[in-house]
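Data card: per-record layout.
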Amino acid sequence: MSAIDFESLWHAVINEPHQRDVFSVHGPDHWRRVERNGCILAARTGANVDVVRLFAIFHDCKRENDGHDPGHGRRGGEFAAKVRGKWFDLPDPDFQRLYLACERHTEALHHSDPTIGTCWDADRLDLGRVGAVPDPYYMSTEFGREIARQGVIHPWLHLAVPVLGAGVGALLGEG
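The structure for this 175-residue chain is written out next.
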């Protein structure tokens, strides 16, 4: 069980001043799907679930727009660094993974670290929200490639239940 109070953290980050539109394709609805995807992936990749869930919250939280926004991942990582120790805590090696995952999630192609790769795959598996089909080539993990080849994540929703609870599909409009 995680020592991080994720629900309080979600509310704190969502209530921070921001520049995103209420219905942003990079906003909290997307973050929730990335969290769900990451929990599903972590069940098989061995990724650190706390880092993956934190990535979901922070990776796009400091976007300035829904278009080309260079540096938004770095800004998300810097915001995580700013609130670390106040809103959540992680050991240094795990925080370094979180920061790197946020900073490079749009610029880098693959990562061999299972936690960073899981973060990036979780984000990329939500490309359907912008009309793009996730491509197995861009996935870092074998499980991410398997899900992308399948074309839907629904057969694996049950893998998120131990972390997110039994209502995970319903909460995300899928159950």
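Known properties of this structure: The chain has nine helices and no strands. The CA atoms of residues 58 and 65 lie 15 Å apart.

See the next section for split statistics.
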